[in-house]
């Protein structure tokens, strides 16, 4: 069953984002159901109760893979059209069904609706996909070769966000990241600085054990080039971001790249390398990650960042006005970009979908593929 889910997840990740763009352009993402009704709809789909009108696939699945694919198609449709309900981060669902004895009772055993949706999107919906004993065996190995770097980063990860710290204290973040390193041959350098922030969304919305498997599946299958090969995917994202900016806002591109000789490496490293996860508050940013987990890491690495830049184009080009309004520096605005440039997640999603439609098919294809496949010069 897990293998079938994995194949379906790969098919979805390789699909173009035209459906997402067209629906968001029409404003369907702003349509709302009553929160309780939306909550029930997601639970219904997760439980496998999918009506024939929910998807374009056959009413009766011909295989387990087809059934899983139909569920993912419906989840993606709900995310695009409505988003998740406001209560989606609440921990309401008991998910610890296997492998945890009394000695492990200190670990959280409930998951949020958002956590369940993300797990399904990642092919971790079957209960057997969360192998609790495997995780605890990795934790028992203790510190990895990157433990010192991990320890420095985890104490800074959303440390002013009380809800996040309560759900994911530094010790829990460190356990997951050290376990990940052990699961990847414990080679020094397996951990890179952005990974504590890439882990943060998962730790907010699901239990520690589930977060380990979801995070591992996400970075290994959807964004491997963002954490491997000296940030190879991140550096490709910088080039793609510049190309996209040139196509969608040539004046801002000229202001940054030509007039001031600023490249994204200088002003956008944190927001690109963390797929926008660094933008506070995390409780709002996870809405961006609904799209990222459902449709691909390219949304977080390039498209959401592009949307923030284009939306703030006039301000970013007005050097004198920026200084008077209190924004930092002359046009170095890294901290302002890391803070989101005053855009909510909902506004960022709508803007990114609209702007993406303006990109050439070749550039859109390169953006889609770059977290996994090298991009040619």
How would you describe the overall organization of this protein?
This protein has 377 residues and is an all-alpha fold. Helices cover 59% and strands 2% of the residues. The protein contains 22 helices and two strands. It has a two-stranded antiparallel sheet. α9 (170-183) packs across α11 (208-221) and α17 (298-311) packs across α21 (345-356). The two termini are 39 Å apart.
Short description:
The protein has 377 residues and is mainly alpha-helical. 59% of the residues lie in helices and 2% in strands.
First and last CA, distance:
39 Å
Which percent range fits the helix content? Answer: 55-70%
Work out the helix count: 22
3D shape = globular
Q: How many strands?
A: 2
The SSE order reads HHHHEEHHHHHHHHHHHHHHHHHH
Average residue pLDDT = 84
Name the poorly predicted regions: 1-16, 25-30, 55-61, 96-108
From the alpha-carbon coordinates, what is the Rg to the nearest angstrom? 20 Å
Largest sheet features: 2 strands, antiparallel
Based on secondary structure, the structural category is mainly alpha
The percent range for strand residues is under 5%
As laid out across the biggest beta sheet, the strand order is 1-2
Oligomeric organization of the protein chains: single chain
Task: Give the topology, please.
Elements (H helix, E strand, L loop, with lengths): L1 H13 L3 H8 L9 H12 L17 H18 L9 E4 L15 E3 H9 L10 H8 L7 H8 L7 H6 L2 H14 L11 H11 L2 H14 L10 H17 L1 H10 L4 H4 L1 H5 L8 H14 L2 H14 L1 H5 L1 H6 L9 H5 L6 H12 L4 H9 L8
Antiparallel strand pairs: 1-2
Helix pairs in contact: 1-4, 2-21, 3-5, 4-16, 7-9, 9-11, 10-11, 12-13, 12-17, 16-17, 16-21, 17-21
